[in-house]
Amino acid sequence: MKSIETNKSNVSGFFSRLVRRQIFIPIAALLLLAVFNLVTDPSFYKITFGYNSAGNPVLSGYLMTILDSGSELAILAIGMTLVTAATGGQDISVGAAIAISGSVILRVLCGTNSRPETLQAPIIVAFLVACIVAMLFGAFNGVLVAYFRIQPMVATLILFTAGRPIAAWINNNELPIINEPSFGYFGGFIPGIPVPTPFFIAVACMIIIALVLRFTNLGLYTQAVGINESSSRLNGLNPAFIKFLTFVILGLCVAVAGLIKVSRFSTINYSVIAKDIEMDAILAVALGGNALSGGKFNMAASILGAYVIQFLTTTLYKFNVQSDALPAYKAIVVIVLVVLSAPIVREWLSGVWKKIRPEGHGKEVA
Amino acid sequence: MASSNKTSKTGGGLGGKMKNITDTNLLLTITIVVFFAMYIGAMVFQGKGFLKPQTFFNILNAQAALIITACGMSLVMITGSIDISVGGVVALVSMCCAVYLDFHNGNVFMAVLISLLIGLAFGVVQGFLVAYLDIQPFIVSLAGMFFARGMTTIVNTNPFNVQNEAFVALKETRVIVPGFGSVNKLGKYVNAYVEIGVIIAILVVILLFFVLRWTKLGRGFYAVGGNSQSALMLGINVKKTKFLAHLICGLLAGVGGFVYFMHVGSGSASHASGMEMNAIASSIIGGTMLTGGVGNIIGTFFGVLSLSTIQNIVSSAGLDDAWWTGITIAAMLCLFLVIQSVVMARKKRALSTKAE
Amino acid sequence: MKEKAVLEMKNIHKSFPGVRALQGVDFTLCEGEIHALMGENGAGKSTLIKVLTGVYGKDEGEIFLKGKDKAVAIHSPQDAQRLGISTVYQEITLCPNLSVAENMFIGRTSGVCQNWKKMNTDADRILQSLDIPAKAAQQLASCSIAVQQMIAIARAVDMDCKVLILDEPTSSLDEQEVEKLFRLMRDLRARGVGIIFVTHFLDQVYEVCDKITVLRDGKLVGEYEIKDLPRVKLVSKMLGKELDDMSDIKGESKPYDKDDQSAPVFEAKGLVSNAGIKPFNFYIKKGEVNGFTGLLGSGRSECVRAIFGADRVLGGTVKMDGKEIKIGKPLDAMKNGIAYLPEDRKVDGIVGDLSVRENIILALQVLKGFLKPFTKAEANKFAEDYIKLLGIKTASADTPIKSLSGGNQQKAILARWLLTDPKYLILDEPTRGIDIGTKIDIQKLVLKLASEGMSVTFISSETDEMLRTCSRLVVMRDRKVVGELSGEELSQSMIMSTIAGGDK
């Protein structure tokens, strides 16, 4: 094999290598947004120290908002990346599943009374129950996808449609409210710590997944199954079980995200909670440069992608974009990013780049 | 030739029969049978509501827009693609028409034109991105859905009813269906009717059925969905075919938007929420496979009817809670997916043991 | 242009990132000739074909067709079709969800509407005239692979083409079907069609072809009349060196010892799977190389798949080293020291996007367990060792395996299984679709492994390859084991007559 690119200058070589790196996409998007904000209003990056209504020290500012609200998305992106890699499809039911697990947490904490004075069960118990329930729903999706061989998007369409009704049914369509302040720590601030708790939870999840990927073969197995199922089977893997497993892991992510979501408001609104978050989570995976058709993945890029999405959302809010109109702007940005990252466009761009370079050299020589 | 002779000899029995039914026809048959079983079941067990022909026509009236958009959806699904922006487009179209008719005192004809143009614009852009830039259709149309929903709010935030006289007249127009009238409580004979939207929907179904069955373009959609690489080798312009599928789907979403608007007569950002999911569900219930290459417009039509029939059954059974509709649709979708999956797997197994 | 030439390609260049696939290749095809295009894998045959059919654009060069004054531009398969260039590819390129007739006519007739009645009648007529056992209205997916291939050929034949390209059309056909195809090719030659025939089977080249063009490393080696180029010369032209390795290897296989009373390493009794084979008995001893032979579709692959648990096992007993074991899925077989190199490299072998390293360690990693991944250093060592040992040509261990040539992919898969240190290695068509150099490498390796005490089952479509390596052959016909040959009985004619059965 002869390389035909040896003559190229080191600079353009570095550039084209960088462009081919997967994590380049979310980093480029992040830089673009960061520069945009810097130019239009540098105060975007101001972080102020103050006290919230409960008298706790808190850091506030747009950057803190991104770190705070991006947490659920980052956690979901972890599971979504695995599901995407193994099945070549996406779970569109995560928003609905968050509603369910949030509803379960409230149900366990409140017992039969929807406005209890004290918690009816320890928070940890409620969380564990929610984990089990969310993993069961993940397992339901997993069974449909892995064993009935239904396309993931369609299979999860079922829970997408039924999830919020089920969430409402769990609490008899009532709206329970938790008065216990310690429940609010998960979605707010722990007294004395000025950084929002969801950020710590997200970081914990990232560390866990990093350890899991490092000390188990989850990464290799999911990628192998996503790339070539038949070959994986002949190498002793059980593709169906691995697909199933990724959905269960996503279920766990959903339960964590659900805890943060209900803790933020200490209550739940079945039709609004985590609305459209499935779309954001899928976009995070795509922005991370992972093929939505499965196979190889880059977890760090996905997580970064999640924060980029949140960065975008926050930037738009800052420009007083109405929350209902937000998607329109997001869509434009997403399309631009996806178009730029499309292989055909990238090939074309690097072709243009190549054309520009030699011309420059030619002029210098002349 | 030993192997093939054996195949033809053993091709008796049930396996042999199943082999000769194409995937498309097999799934279509299941759908139609289930629909009639369900409707007759409703007539028997739920009684009078379902015995009145008008109940059936009301389903049609309410679902005309869904039928149109689901047809477009089936088309892109047959080519192995998907378009989840249709619900958003329907909402955007009704809002734009509403604003144009009431705030700018426009005429109905121009409103129709606006609808078509909006639909066409979405179809062209998404089709271009999917077909020519090779971007995953799910992401493209996801962005399309976001954009359409967002734009609806930007065009006008608050929902309102349209007062434009010409439009209201059009909206109120009823087409009598001869022979299906019934006697009402006061003992007066009332004719059964459908709205104009239903006529449009049925025309769309017939037209698309014709296109898919008897035109080169239509067979091209199936070929591209079956195996796009092969289709390319067989000399089909795959990119153009995919582009056209998205274009037609967008256009039909525009038409569906206007029909929806004619039915509800108002503009609102929350209109047609979840319609894309209903359209996908209808297509799947109607036997269209998301993997592409298999599907039928008639099936989609019955898919929509099945979906709305079960909604009607649920609400007339007293489970009037809005949440229950979601659960029943999901259960039904689940059921059909599992049936499809099992039937296809068995068919495949029957074939593989017979091959060679 | 030469007088009788229907096609002339001049000075064709084509590069891919990192590879010069074609460098100044000329090719001339005359009216009414069957022209073999030969070369090892990576020689540029497929690229040349794809340039000709418009799948790839060329970087440089010109293509002339008879009846056209200027060089023609071919930008897409449609362009090629319009110009009378039809192709039948190695992989079946038809749509499984459409009917047979549609597959024959789609994309090539003008007009807006589809006339089903006319199309079906025409299709039935063509199928009948070519003696293809399919019905026009049948769904394509319900035909066997061989029949699908023939339908693809029927389509190309019916297109009134001046140039017909057959890109390894015979790899999924059995002998009678190949014979039928050849009859068809001769018939077309008589009608003045120029046929480009790409194949790995030398026998077939000498059976039907008039001329041979040899490519090597993207360059033209030469164009020869078939009578001027004996087999040995052809092979040496393809490899680029005089080579006696073919005879070298002969006789190296250990003769089968009938009196050996030692217990078999692996033994199966009445094994049957859901792939439609009849229950069969089988055993293999330590250090033995044996093989399954039979026509395509005779069930030889299905037998080894049953042994490995790749298909669902329905019955029978299996013993390893005399102990009864249960193999329900591939992992069970792997745990008992059985390794299986599958027939279809692309579908069952490689994990395309993963690196060569990950592909090599995959099986051993699965055996080691989910919670015990190899460290990067360990994995690298395994990969580097085997890349060196088997001479896998790859830029690095990090290269995605899909960018390797077929032969090197096959070596990597072989490395994967050797790494698990199996007691019993099953190789199902390890040499299919790879170049002669690698074929010989693999045959030698098999014999070496056997001499070191590994038991190997070897399956190949090429009988002489089997004869060179195996000391015992299990013969199959119609999904049944019909005989076993060893020692003196191992000869081409004996195998043929056992396969044919009875007095034939």
Q: What's the arrangement of secondary structure elements?
A:
The complex is a heterotrimer of chains A (366), B (356) and C (504).
Chain A: H1 10-20, H2 24-40, E1 48-51, E2 57-60, H3 62-87, H4 94-110, H5 123-147, H6 152-170, H7 197-215, H8 218-227, H9 229-234, H10 239-265, H11 277-287, H12 299-318, H13 326-341, H14 343-365
Antiparallel strand pairs in A: 1-2
Chain B: H1 2-10, H2 13-20, H3 23-46, H4 48-51, H5 53-78, H6 86-103, H7 108-132, H8 137-155, E1 160-161, H9 165-172, E2 174-183, E3 189-195, H10 196-214, H11 216-226, H12 228-233, H13 238-264, E4 266-267, H14 275-285, H15 297-316, H16 322-354
Antiparallel strand pairs in B: 1-4, 2-3
Helix pairs in contact in B: 3-15, 5-10, 5-11, 5-13, 5-14, 5-15, 6-7, 6-8, 6-13, 7-8, 7-13, 10-11, 10-13, 11-13, 14-15, 15-16
Chain C: E1 5-16, E2 19-30, E3 34-38, H1 45-52, E4 60-65, H2 77-82, E5 85-88, H3 100-105, H4 116-129, H5 145-158, E6 163-167, H6 175-190, E7 194-198, H7 202-208, E8 211-216, E9 219-225, H8 231-239, H9 245-249, E10 266-273, E11 280-284, E12 289-293, H10 300-308, E13 313-320, E14 323-325, H11 330-335, E15 338-341, H12 345-349, H13 356-368, H14 376-390, H15 406-419, E16 424-428, H16 436-451, E17 455-459, H17 463-469, E18 472-477, E19 480-486, H18 492-500
Parallel strand pairs in C: 3-7, 3-8, 5-6, 6-7, 12-17, 12-18, 15-16, 16-17
Antiparallel strand pairs in C: 1-2, 1-4, 8-9, 10-11, 10-13, 13-14, 18-19
Helix pairs in contact in C: 13-14, 13-15, 14-15
Describe this structure in words.
The complex is a heterotrimer of chains A (366), B (356) and C (504). Chain A has one domain (20-34, 59-320): ABC transporter involved in vitamin B12 uptake, BtuC (Orthogonal Bundle). The model of chain A is unreliable at 1-9 and 360-366 (pLDDT under 50). Chain A is built from 14 helices and two strands. In chain A, strand 1 (48-51) and strand 2 form a beta hairpin. Chain A is an all-alpha fold. In chain B, the strands form two sheets. Chain B has a two-stranded antiparallel sheet with strand order 1-4. Chain B starts with a helix and ends with a helix. By secondary structure, chain B is mainly α. In chain B, helix 6 (86-103) packs across helix 13 (238-264). Chain C has 504 residues and is of the alpha/beta class. Chain C contains 18 helices and 19 strands. Chain C has a six-stranded mixed β-sheet with strand order 5-6-7-3-8-9, sandwiched between helices. Chain C has a six-stranded mixed β-sheet with strand order 15-16-17-12-18-19, sandwiched between helices. In chain C, strand 10 and strand 11 form a beta hairpin. The longest helix of chain C has 16 residues, at 175-190. Classes of the chains: A mainly alpha (366), B mainly alpha (356), C alpha/beta (504). Chains A and B meet through helix 6, helix 11, helix 13 and helix 14 of A and helix 8, helix 14 and helix 16 of B.
